[in-house]
Automatic annotation (TrEMBL):
InterPro entries, sorted: Class_I_gatase-like, GATase1-like
Domain Putative glutamine amidotransferase stretches: 2-89
Protein name: Cytoplasmic protein
Originating species: Salmonella enterica
Length: 90
């Protein structure tokens, strides 16, 4: 089950619980990045920078492959993705 590790961040602040996810890619967060959520102790949502820009990595899926029906119908789904895009835009 996914858990927030940065509850005060604008992306994860609107919710305290994640719906189930059906899978994810294992990754290692780079130094100086911020892990906003973890799943099974692995980074799930990571914010960072690249040159002059901001980047966000979501290690699961936003579609029905690894996105469970509960995730796709989650009340925070649109807010989550809008907050991600708003945070990384220039």
């Amino acid at each position: 089950k996914a858990v927030n590790t940065a509850v005060e961040h604008v992306i994860t602040q609107p919710f305290s619980e994640w719906p189930p996810l059906l899978g994810y890619n294992k990754l290692i967060a780079k130094e100086n990045s911020q892990v906003l959520a973890e799943i099974n102790g692995d980074p799930l949502l990571v914010m960072g920078t690249y040159h002059k820009g901001k980047v966000c990595c979501f290690a699961s899926d936003c579609s029905p492959h690894w996105g469970s029906p509960q995730f796709l119908q989650w009340e925070h789904y649109a807010t989550f993705w809008c907050n991600v895009l708003h945070t990384i835009k220039k």
